Amino acid sequence: MRLEIASTYSENGYQDYELHLNEHTGTHLDAPIHFIKDGIAVHEIPVHCLCGPLVVLDIRDRVLHNHDATVIPDDILRWEKKYGKIPSNAIIIMNSGWGKYFGDNNAFVNMDKQGIPHFPGWSKTAVEFLLEARSVLGIGVDTLSLDQGASEDFPVHNTWLSNGLWGLENVANLDNIPPSGAFLFVGASKVYGGTGSPVRLIAVI
Amino acid sequence: MRLEIASTYSENGYQDYELHLNEHTGTHLDAPIHFIKDGIAVHEIPVHCLCGPLVVLDIRDRVLHNHDATVIPDDILRWEKKYGKIPSNAIIIMNSGWGKYFGDNNAFVNMDKQGIPHFPGWSKTAVEFLLEARSVLGIGVDTLSLDQGASEDFPVHNTWLSNGLWGLENVANLDNIPPSGAFLFVGASKVYGGTGSPVRLIAVI
């Protein structure tokens, strides 16, 4: 991401910048069209699909020993045992503890000697479980990708987005959010035709 | 604003774009630093200052006869007669009816033969009244600028932003929002050092 000066106090009376960035920079949303050619773009996601009860799935313990750990159906069932059934129109975000590496690109991408990244993500079985048995608006991760870093064919992206649903990547500050009971507003920029966009997430407790 | 293809389905398995845009494109926020050299940038606005009760001031009638109309203290007092005192930490947005020109650049900027734009905005006296006598987080307009189009020295920007407060420009869909009773979430992208950013506004009624 690059900021280029467009106006200056001395010449214009105010300052501003031209922004140059990939749609998928920082905390951002993946729209269905990111992977699915005829999927909807970010501006076509109805606003009521961008607000919902927030569920945080904590897999930090498993990640300590396994950087390729994924959210599995058991993580969802374990959450439900404690907090009750996943609420309707939920937004479910993985807290893998990876957020502590924000700003340290090497640790965040965690590439091995073969150039393969290693960081946690969702499993295909977990999103298939959600699609079949729960009512969910979107899923998210505190890592670079809905799929685990080592994935080559993005089964989670393809499965989830092909159902017209969206994902959030690089979600920050999850340690400050209770596992259950918060409500999330996903402030996605309405870029026409965009495959995604930077978002401001506001959780209300 | 320009979208440049960065990845393609055939080469990468997914598509995305590089975005090139000014910070002050579409519905967007002006941070204090936009006009005030030592003011805070968009990433420094605390999240609790981006959520508040929404007040919509309807000046559509006056704008029909005067494209240079501004929000004046009387508009605020008239709103208060109907709906009670402006709530604490309010976000107050002008509905001038100008939103109907979105997408028609000539009508939206409305330049005269001398090249001077004509569209409504706030008056300096109205924002001075708010600063002295009410508790407000931010103000907004459904036009290009907090100041009326014909302004050359931006008294509203300079007065309001120098108090560490922010503004919203090009706010859409105000006709669907009640004058009183909605609550607004301002999803400003957290661009480090940014003088503003595109925002997704979500009003809850």
Automatic annotation (TrEMBL), chains A, B:
The keyword Nucleotide-binding does not apply. The keyword Hydrolase applies. Coiled coil: none annotated. GO terms for biological process: L-tryptophan catabolic process to kynurenine. SUPFAM superfamilies: Putative cyclase. GO terms for molecular function: arylformamidase activity. Keywords: Hydrolase. It comes from the Bacteria. InterPro entries: KFase/CYL (IPR007325), KFase_sf (IPR037175). This is Putative metal-dependent hydrolase.
